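REQUEST FORM: STRUCTURE PREDICTION
Request ID: SP-0412
Submitted by: Lab K.M.
Chain count: 1
Length (residues): 110
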Amino acid sequence: VEQARTKAMDLQRRKAFCEGSLHQTHDAVRSLAADLQSPLYLGVEQRHREAVIKHESAAYAAKDLGRYHAALDKALMKYHSLKMAEINKTVKELWRKVYRGRDIDYVAIR
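STATUS: Completed
RESULT:
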């Protein structure tokens, strides 16, 4: 009988502990539900969506700018090379017309 009484008391303590834990969990859920209704969390899905769109747009813009920069740099370097070749050709022709010495064939800009 004493053993059954001890077991019953132990089970009642465990039941009370579980009920207390359940009550605390319910209170925490109510508190979190109230927090979700606060201005901080209202419309958070829409704000997150907008932030993701802004981030992705900025990433694509940066990638595009990198491509445009590389293309412009390549075009400028090609233009510079063509112009330098044209200048060197003109300088070479003029040098040969003007210079009468035999020690220097022509001059060029590197």
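NOTES: The chain has a mean pLDDT of 95.
Reviewed by: T.R.
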